């Protein structure tokens, strides 16, 4: 009992740093749909470091400026190749929920996918305990992996 209580207390003292990135190929629309979820307080800390200013992702009045920071940051820290070709992420929107912030991107003109190569180092610049969970779906097949800092590269074959 005491050992399990101690492990639980250690977890409280050492918070988890987790980001989830989902990549979905929409064959009908010929697009790649990408969504990233990060804990808002961690994401704000990284964006503040980049912007050299206070960032509040809850501030509706600053949403346009926040979205620009998000698009720039994710664009630099999440690179994707489809079938060996680098693709450009197009920012769609962001939304804040409870303790997380979602950001959404898409890539147009992707009629088919055989392989997705990803370099994902989201939040690595602030947290060396960061864990990036990756999910990729193509043609109803879903594959997942976990990238623990400093690992950032993964390939999904379909």
Count of helical regions: 3
Q: State the secondary-structure class.
A: alpha+beta
DSSP strand count: 10
Mean pLDDT: 91
Q: Distance N terminus to C terminus? A: 45 Å
Helix content: 10-25%
Largest sheet, if any? 6 strands, mixed
Strand fraction band? 35-45%
Task: Name the poorly predicted regions.
Answer: 1-11
Radius of gyration: 17 Å
Topology as H/E string? HEEHHEEEEEEEE
Total domain modules: 1
Major β-sheet strand ordering: 5-6-2-1-8-9
Choose one word for the global shape. globular
Concise summary:
With 158 residues, the protein is of the alpha+beta class. It has one domain. The protein is built from three helices and ten strands, in the order αββααββββββββ.
Task: Describe the protein in words.
- The chain has 158 residues and is an alpha+beta fold.
- It starts with a helix and ends with a strand.
- It has helices at 2-13, 40-51, 63-77, and strands at residues 18-26, 31-39, 78-82, 85-87, 90-97, 100-107, 115-120, 131-138, 141-148, 153-157.
- 25% of the residues lie in helices and 44% in strands.
- It is globular and about 40 Å long.
- The strands form two sheets. The chain has a six-stranded mixed beta sheet with strand order 5-6-2-1-8-9. A four-stranded antiparallel beta sheet has the order 4-3-7-10.
- The chain has three helices and ten strands.
- It has one domain (17-157).
């Amino acid at each position: 009992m005491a050992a399990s209580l101690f492990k639980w207390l250690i977890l409280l003292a050492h918070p988890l740093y987790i980001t989830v990135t989902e990549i979905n190929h929409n064959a009908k629309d010929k697009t790649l749909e990408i969504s990233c979820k990060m804990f808002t307080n961690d994401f704000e800390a990284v964006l503040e470091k980049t912007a050299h200013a206070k960032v509040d992702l809850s501030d509706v009045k600053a949403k346009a400026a926040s979205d620009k920071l998000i698009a720039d940051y994710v664009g630099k820290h999440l690179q994707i190749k489809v079938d060996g070709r680098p693709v450009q992420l197009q920012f769609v929107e962001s939304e804040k929920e409870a303790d997380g912030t979602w950001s959404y991107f898409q890539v147009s003109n992707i009629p088919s996918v055989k392989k997705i190569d990803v370099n994902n180092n989201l939040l690595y610049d602030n947290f060396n305990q960061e864990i990036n969970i990756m999910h990729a779906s193509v043609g109803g097949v879903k594959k997942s992996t976990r990238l623990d800092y400093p690992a950032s590269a993964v390939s999904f074959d379909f």
